[in-house]
Write a structure and sequence with these properties.
Helices cover about 30% and strands about 25% of the residues. The chain is of the alpha/beta class. It has a single domain, classed as Phosphoglycerate mutase-like (Rossmann fold), CATH 3.40.50.1240. Helix 2 links the parallel strand 2 and strand 3. The protein is globular. The termini are far apart.
């Protein structure tokens, strides 16, 4: 099997719950206590499902960075986090451009970003196949700390509309309270 034909996983994650004030300083808004717990729940979920991440492409906003850190602190296998300003409130086209630049040696890439870009990208990439439950759940909304796990075969640079299959959709919540 050539490297280009290798199976890949793309995890699209909307950041965890953030402060609801400071809209004039949106880029600096931090996670709420619930958001921190939910980010940890995402890390636990990824670890429990055997999803280790080779490369993380993360928005430069404080809340996305804190979400990524919470995932790694919860025990998800670590990888380097690449901060990319283009992900902050990005359009779907811009997000796809960023994913296409992912390291070809990375089999599992995670993008930590914002709505509406992350949910729109998940819908755009899905070919309609895969998890029926996942498609139904995703159609019901893409709340904070939700993630879509997509399967793709090919080079990241070649990823395009309808090329991926939705494997799972999960809303990560810490229900301890």
């Amino acid at each position: 099997m050539t490297r280009a034909a290798q199976d890949r996983t793309l995890v699209l994650l909307r950041h965890a719950k953030a402060e609801q004030d400071r809209w004039d300083e949106d880029h600096e808004r931090e996670l709420t206590p619930r958001g921190r717990r939910d980010a940890a729940a995402a890390g636990h979920w990824l670890r429990e499902h055997g999803i280790g991440v080779d490369e993380v492409l993360c928005s430069t906003s404080e809340r996305t960075q804190q979400t990524a850190q919470g995932i790694w602190d919860a025990g998800c296998p670590e990888s380097a986090i690449h901060l990319d300003r283009r992900i902050y409130n990005a359009t779907t086209d811009r997000l796809l451009e960023v994913v296409r630049e992912a390291d070809e040696d990375a089999d599992v890439v995670m993008v930590v970003g914002h709505a509406p870009g992350i949910p729109s990208l998940a819908e755009l990439l899905c070919d309609g196949e895969g998890s029926t439950d996942g498609h139904q759940a995703m159609a019901g909304g893409f709340p904070t700390c939700a993630l879509a796990v997509l399967h793709y075969s090919g080079r990241w640079a070649d990823l395009d509309v309808g090329d991926a299959r939705l494997e799972r959709f999960h809303v990560c919540r810490d229900d301890s309270e």
